[in-house]
Amino acid sequence: MASDTLTTGAGKSGSPGGSGTGTGRRRPLSPRAGLTILAVVLSVISVLPVLWMLTSSFKTRETVTDGKLIPTDFTFDNFVYVFTEVPFARYLWNSFFISAVITIAALFFHSMAAYALARLRFPGREKLFGAIFATLLVTAPVVLIPLFMVARELGLLDSYAGLIIPAIFNAFGIFLLRQFYLGLPKELEEAAVIDGCGHWRVYWNIVLPMSRPILSALAIFFFLANWNAFVWPLVATSDQDLTVVQLGIASFQTQYTSNWNYILAAATVAALPMLILFFVFQRQIVESIKTSGIK
Question: What DSSP assignment string belongs to 97-133?
């Protein structure tokens, strides 16, 4: 009886202590949960301006600046104005044509230059790559005036050539492709050379097919950058038939006021193709970044 009483007493005295230590402390937030919350917050901050642009494009001129996310007066007149009162379809075509040509030409020339810098041995190769890489440190406004003077001397102003040729060459694409080619196995190329293939055939039949992920990502980067180009088209063209979509959007802004309902409608039309393109090729972009060899 005494032992049973002692045992029961020990159990009763031990249980409050155990429950007290269990409920008095909170489990700390795990790093994974913290990163997830941070990612959600940053995603909301990033998506909110796009969502506001999309919903505000359906507002009237009087309610477009009311600060409400959901429009009270829903209207399609802004989009009707954009496509009927101004040649916005022409602006879209100009941007698409210029961006597509620049993207195709840039991928072709950049891949050849990157392959030569990664695989071919010639005097001054590293110095040449260093000079190309150094151009990434020079901002576009610094070379804007010299580039304009060169284009004027060559007669490239107010032409598609003036909008396309200066934008083809970019050190970023050469750098990214060179890093990717340095990570490719040399055995395949050496086997092709033993079989009698020259550098051009090795590049065309072996290297390019293996470069599809990085080329797909660069194609999206180049197309998006030139689709959103504003400064150089503004400087290099004055012909209405050569107006690109970003200049067309800016044309809705007058000297004293801005037609924000038309601007947001035009911006929505210009942004939707790029958003669709990004979501379709999102996997290629991620894979290219993981396999590009940047460390």
Answer: HHHHHHHHHHHHHHHHHHHHHHH---TTHHHHHHHHH
DSSP state, residue 242: G
Output the CA–CA distances (angstroms, integers) from residue 211 to 115, 207, 219, 265, in the order listed: 11, 6, 12, 38
The CA R_g of the chain, rounded to the nearest whole Å, is: 29
Is residue 222 within 8 A of residue 173, CB to CB? The reply is yes
Return phi, psi of residue 253, to 5°: -95, 120
d(CA 153, CA 156): 8
Query: Bridge partners of 258?
Result: 253
The tokens describing 84, both together, are 């009927």
User: For 50, which DSSP code?
Assistant: H
pLDDT, tens digit, 9 for 90 and up, residues 152-193: 999 999 999 999 999 998 888 999 899 889 888 888 888 888
211-227: per-residue pLDDT in tens? 888 888 888 889 989 99
Contact 226, 102 (CB under 8 A): yes
Provide the sign of the torsion angle of the four alpha carbons 108, 110, 113, 117, taken in this order: negative
Residue 204 DSSP symbol: I
> pTM for the complete prediction?
0.80
Which of left, alpha, beta for 155 (phi over 0: left; psi -120 to 50: alpha)? Answer: left
Q: Which 8-state DSSP code applies to residue 137?
A: G
Instruction: Report which residue type is found at 43.
Output: S
Report residue 157 as tokens: 């102003």
